[in-house]
Amino acid sequence: MKKILIMILALILFVGGCSKQGKDEIDEVENNVENEAPNEEISEEEEDVKIEAPDFTLKNLQGEEVSLSDYRGKIVLINFWATWCTWCDKEMPDLQKLKDENDDLVVLAVDVMEDKETVEKYIQEGEYDFEVVLDEDGNVSQTYMVGGFPTSYFVDKDGILLGGVPGAMTYDDMVKILESIREEK
After folding, report:
1. CB under 8 Å to 153, separation ≥6 — which residues?
2. DSSP 3-state assignment of 164?
3. How many angstroms separate the CA atoms of 59 and 47, rounded?
4. How many domains does the chain have?
5. CB atoms within 10 A of CB 115
6. Tens digits of per-residue pLDDT, 48-64?
7. Domain holding 173: CATH number?
8. pLDDT at 24
């Protein structure tokens, strides 16, 4: 678990997204890391704290309700995005490739506050077939404290939230995180 969190923190420092606050958020993370006591030990009790990912139910493009908890037993990559986001657009083919190559993974793309027709057209044009749900009022993205797009979270097979990455990831980044999650089990 510690290795996964370190990898995600490293990605936070090196990736960007469609956010006005991106630079400020990275500076804040760097300051927090620098201000940590250099020899501070993490007790086994603190290291083993597990937080269940907040469950949610949203409608997909077919109008069916989809819940995060529907995917227990699989690793879930929750990706918050929007059609107008340049970084999201660059990341989408890599999400599709990752989904196609990993049977134990679900890519759950949560479009934030856009109309169904816009999202549907974008998904059809890109020929993406991962699950897309609509966060029409933005409540789910608020629950997950999304500050910019794209933002991704990883959830293990037991529904435990492992961490998040604000900003776009490369395919290689996604694979490394996925492999790290598998090694932890």
Report:
1. 53, 77, 78, 144, 161, 162, 163, 164, 165
2. strand
3. 35
4. 1
5. 11
6. 789 999 999 999 999 99
7. 3.40.30.10
8. 43
